[in-house]
Structure formats: C-alpha cells, structure tokens
Design goal:
It contains seven helices and six strands, in the order αααβββαββαβαα. By secondary structure, the protein is α+β, with helices and mostly antiparallel strands. The strands form two sheets. The chain has a four-stranded antiparallel β-sheet, covered by helices on one side. The protein has a two-stranded antiparallel sheet with strand order 1-2. Helix 1 packs across helix 3, helix 2 crosses helix 3 and helix 4 runs antiparallel to helix 5. The chain is globular and about 50 Å long.
C-alpha cells in the first residue's frame, strides 16, 4: 500500500467511525507504526482534509453544508473577480486543484469565505515569487465550493457560467476528483 493509498484509507476509516479513532488503532488496522499515522495525518491536514485531534483520537471535522466540485478556467487577471463572485454569493472556496497529465492531481487548501480572505490570498500571491497553481494547466483548475444551500451553489455555478469561466467536467474528472 502506498502512502497515498494509506492516507485515503485513513480518511475512509474516519468517515465511517462514529467516534474518534486512536492513532494506535489506525496503526494496527493499517500495519504501520503510530508515528507513520501522525505523519500521514499531518500530510492530510496540509492537503486540506479537516482531521481534528481529540483526547480520544482522530476525527474528521464535519461541515454539513453542501459542497460542489466546479471546473473553471480564466486568465490570471480574473482571479480576484472569480473569487469575489463566489464569496459574494455565499460560497467558501475550500481548495484549488489541478489534474496534470504528468504530475497527477495537486491541490492546495484555501478556505476563502470572505472578501477579506480573498484580499489576503491576493496579497500573499503578490508578495511571493510564486504563481497560480492553474498556470501549469493552461488556466484549467477545480474548486470545492461550499455554501449554505444547494440553491446558493446553483447561483454560483450559474454566475461562473455567465462569465464564461465554468468548464464542463469529463466523466473521468467527475469520478477521479470527487
């Protein structure tokens, strides 16, 4: 089992659990040391998975709001407009993700839910030597977007489409990128 497969299994186990699961129990289940589990949890958190530590073990933080995966494409100078549109319509941009033919899937946690968050993100981008993750996929990227209702997600999706930013997903993408 690869590390990626093991981390996916950890998420599956935590999703199925009715109570927190200890690191020792996860280690036994997966045939690794507790330290490997600690490292895997750190990597899951870095990738945006909301794993919380409790006195009784690990659990997933559950956000009951509906979430939708959206595929978009826009120019670099439209990033602010795209993000403002989503948060102004009540959305939270959980992450940005690309699916590169050579490098595979890459994602970064964002947690952007307000104009202030958008400004912080843009400031961080301007003050770094980095560029947008989507630049290596010709602007194509995905966002998991949460909102208080399916109707709000419909509004966000419709508005992205009206701006010409929404891109249809292939069946492969829909299945592979959940």
């Amino acid at each position: 089992m690869t590390g990626k497969e093991r981390r996916a299994r950890i998420v599956e186990l935590l999703e199925a659990a009715q109570a927190p699961v200890s690191g020792a129990a996860l280690a036994r289940e997966l045939g690794v040391s507790r330290q490997v589990i600690v490292q895997d949890v750190a990597l899951l958190r870095a990738d945006g998975t909301a794993v919380v530590s409790t006195s009784r073990g690990y659990a997933l933080a559950r956000d009951a709001r509906p979430c939708r995966l959206l595929k978009v494409r826009h120019r670099d100078d439209e990033v602010a407009d795209e993000m403002y549109l989503i948060v102004d319509l009540g959305g939270t941009i959980e992450d940005t993700m690309i699916n590169h033919r050579t490098y595979g899937q890459m994602s970064a946690h964002l947690g952007v839910s307000s104009r202030r968050d958008v400004e912080r993100f843009l400031d961080d981008l301007r003050n770094s030597r980095s560029s947008l993750l989507s630049n290596i996929t010709s602007g194509y990227h995905f966002h998991h977007v949460r909102a208080d209702s399916e109707e709000a997600l419909d509004d966000i999706e419709r508005a992205l489409g009206e701006h010409g930013w929404l891109v249809p997903m292939s069946d492969y993408e829909r299945e592979a990128l959940r």
